[in-house]
Amino acid sequence: MNESTSFGDPVQGPSTGGKLRAKPLRLDTFRENVILLSRDCTALRPERLRGVRKVEISARGVAMLAVPMLCDDPALVSPGEAGIPEPLARRLCVRDGEPVQVSPASPLRTLEAVKAKVAGESLSLADYEAIARDLAQHRWSDIEISAFLVACASFMTADETLDLTRAMVAAGDRLTWDRDLVADKHCIGGIPGNRTSLIVAPIVAAHGLLIPKTSSRAITSPAGTADTMEVLARVDLTEPEMRAVVEQCGGCIVWGGRVNLSPADDVLISVERPLSIDTPEQMVASILSKKLAAGATNLVLDIPVGPTAKVRDRRAALRLKKLFEYVGRRLGLDLQVLVTDGGQPIGRGVGPALEARDVLAVLRRDADAPQDLREKGIMLAGAVLESDPALAGGSGAARARELLDNGAALAKLEQIIAAQGPSPIDGRLGPLAHEVTARRSGKVEAIDCLKIATVARLSGAPTDPGAGVDLLVKAGDTVRVGDPLYRIHAFEPSDFGFAIEAAGEDPGYRIGT
Amino acid sequence: MNESTSFGDPVQGPSTGGKLRAKPLRLDTFRENVILLSRDCTALRPERLRGVRKVEISARGVAMLAVPMLCDDPALVSPGEAGIPEPLARRLCVRDGEPVQVSPASPLRTLEAVKAKVAGESLSLADYEAIARDLAQHRWSDIEISAFLVACASFMTADETLDLTRAMVAAGDRLTWDRDLVADKHCIGGIPGNRTSLIVAPIVAAHGLLIPKTSSRAITSPAGTADTMEVLARVDLTEPEMRAVVEQCGGCIVWGGRVNLSPADDVLISVERPLSIDTPEQMVASILSKKLAAGATNLVLDIPVGPTAKVRDRRAALRLKKLFEYVGRRLGLDLQVLVTDGGQPIGRGVGPALEARDVLAVLRRDADAPQDLREKGIMLAGAVLESDPALAGGSGAARARELLDNGAALAKLEQIIAAQGPSPIDGRLGPLAHEVTARRSGKVEAIDCLKIATVARLSGAPTDPGAGVDLLVKAGDTVRVGDPLYRIHAFEPSDFGFAIEAAGEDPGYRIGT
User: Are B442 and B338 contacting, i.e. CB atoms less than 8 angstroms apart?
Assistant: First the structure.
């Protein structure tokens, strides 16, 4: 029970800690800043901060907050030392033995806003600005981020979503491009194999619109656009490198992580992921803050709807669409939201290498290229092209099809790949392969997106780019008992076992009579 | 953004990890189980679990879940070792070099319930039972606990509170006493100096009712009952030791932490504390689960109401009272809830040693003993005594006053102190002393409980039992500019500075004209 509390009270004290010697530790505390202090620390008494208060640590003018962890092993951290694991060591840039100042951290004022949010109040733009700054500077602990996310999940207005988005953009860098029209395309995710960006971006760039695409790596899915592109080219480009590619090619497909775009979003995502929090408000703020920070002026947004997609029905899709439109347009974005069919995975491959294979098959116009991926790519690219004032209204899709069929899109992707540099990873398929077969005969009515993603993820994707699921049969096809439905690829026997077991419980195919 | 997720999916896999050698580390990760694994770990690939999944570690039949932390220093943790910090090492009881089995943990089914709670659903008794078990076994990570607490804060029915309470009792030990009537008394907290338990328990035991009082240490307040009692006697008794004291004295005042009463509550509290979450539902489940587990049959509950107390107005107090009654009575507790005046601190001292001084002054009938503490102690003890069928209705307070005034209560406390054993701590007052003075003349109208608690806490209480605040003037007294209002005691210069600064911003006294 919390009795009268000092947490979050407006007590701003002078730093009355002391100096310690930095000892960088090759220990990785993931997103959270952690500092190891001896129980007999000479600078402060860490035991009394434990579980309630953070430590402020500063070196050469950079100050960070960290959660204290107590150490009773002087060989690891002596009383005169501050043990500094990753990522704190990287964020502070301290060298071994360098003096650092540590003191009990003053309570963060933004945590008062979290308390208000937990109590069901609306927060102001100023609150969200301060929150985004503190998040970007890694000043919150994990449990505070978690509390904020869950409080927002229970109640958040459209205006708060707008304010959070605006604040998240402001808390990071913002790319600017020397063009009035900067195109972008994004999907809210949830549909395995839905790798249309690798088709849309080359088509749009081939047409002559600027499309500097920054994308994410998979969070809980078997592949993100950046993971799939990495099978074909280097994606961890710095901002100058990215600019050079865009200047040369009119587009790129890079990982957004090297550029400091909406860093508060990265922090929120790292906690949303293990908690599976995926509310409309967080989705809108996350996606739009990233796109605005990347300098997009015109965005086509894909919301797939289906019984196993992120958005389960048309009503929910409409609500989400309206929220995207409300926030996007108030922030000056020309936004077009497309609600698409999310009834089954798109294409055949699920996992970075398998998806890259499908994308190349479409761009190369192979006879066996997945038609659904091709058609969806053309539809979305067409929607993006409609933003070109020079193009007659309604002719976007035809123009997209033309650029795909005449080989211009393939040539553009090849140019982008050459400009970004060779892929650093091995994209060969996993040698462990297992076919999951039909348990009854009939027509495939639906494929469970969640299940296929789970099996592909368990098989090792995206950690192993060549792991994943290769769908051999799609909805509409007819199968007989024992026919293969999909093939699992893996490298690690344990992953392979997990994936086969998950598929064995229920392959994820609904087969009618 | 979470794309299709594997978190919480019903994937139960075989343990396909491997064996490592245990390496206990003298590192304290506080409440959370953390395991340090080499990035090149021979048993599993920790990198792919990072941030999303826990590790199951088992030794000699005991299995625990732990959050993996990556280590790149083979001198600290080699690829064949599992680094095991506190508290995991204690919970697993592993020796250095002992083989342990590690594997990726199967997703916890209870986290599905957390997701449902976040989505605004009601949970069932079975859900809460599973949750209490997983909490008691330290299977949840900090962010999961935080998410659960905040989700409960936004919506929780009275029946869910009942179910959570019942589940928390069942997840731990339960004391039984060979008496039909086992008395207890509890305050929801928030009022500095309100140390009535040390007066009530001796009076009740002197009367002959059984009152085996387990109490908590301060969480965010400057002193808990256990902290104050520790100035007078040993409080960390084991269950057999506690039973021996109760058998001899008819009562005790011990710290509940050595007895495994409602361990799920301890886990929740450790996250509620830094988050300052203190909802009626969590308060009811926390207090009643502890009291029921301690074997109480008759409980007097003190809810102080005041502008700076935990409960701010009568309406909120009434709501809280009804919730306590609803849950308590359905769980077979004879519950009497008293709504009391929480307009200012009780007694004069705030901090373990200062509060112990006040308690002894009351029991010794010293001329300068704080009258408000005496009267409140008599009132509460009287309410407890009313549960004695042998006593005429309405005579409880008179009987309590008699036992206090005839020295029986003092003798009883001295007997309990002797039975529990000598205090292990130094209860002398802090040598650093500073008087906070009145800024205007007039009558003291109110004293801010939160502010006084903050100043006392900053001064070092309860870590330094002799630190705290000594109130020299109470509401109703008249002061002149420059008159001392209270004295701050501290040991550490930094604490002293923080406390003086907080008092300097606003001493917490409302002085009228």
Answer: no
pLDDT at site B16: 62
The distance of B230 to chain A (nearest Cα, Å) reads 18
Instruction: Give the pLDDT confidence score for residue A16 in this predicted structure.
Output: 62
Is residue B197 over pLDDT 90? yes
Q: A55 CB near a chain B CB, below 8 Å?
A: no
DSSP A360-425: HHHHTT-TTS-HHHHHHHHHHHHHHHTT-TTSPTT-HHHHHHHHHHTSHHHHHHHHHHHHH-B--S
Percent of chain A scored above 70 by pLDDT?
A: 97
Does B4 score more than 50 pLDDT? no
Q: Which domains does chain A have, with CATH numbers?
A: 18-104 (2.40.40.20), 110-170 (1.20.970.10), 183-260+273-420 (3.40.1030.10), 432-511 (3.90.1170.30)
Please name the amino acid found at residue A405: D
- What's the pLDDT band for A46 if we cut at 50, 70, 90? confident
Query: Which entry of A278, A334, A341, A483 is annotated as an active-site residue?
Result: A278
H-helix or E-strand spanning residue B194: none
What interface predicted TM-score (ipTM) does this complex get? 0.84
Q: Are B454 and A4 in contact, with CB atoms under 8 Å apart? A: yes
Task: Evaluate if residue A493 carries a pLDDT over 80.
Answer: yes
B505 touches chain A (CB under 8 A): yes
Strands (E), B347-441: 349-350, 432-437
Q: Do A28 and B72 touch (CB under 8 A)?
A: yes
CA of B274 to nearest chain A CA: how many angstroms apart?
5
DSSP B430: P
pTM: 0.87
- Taking 3-state DSSP, the helix, strand and coil percentages for chain B, each rounded to the nearest 5, stand at 40, 20, 40
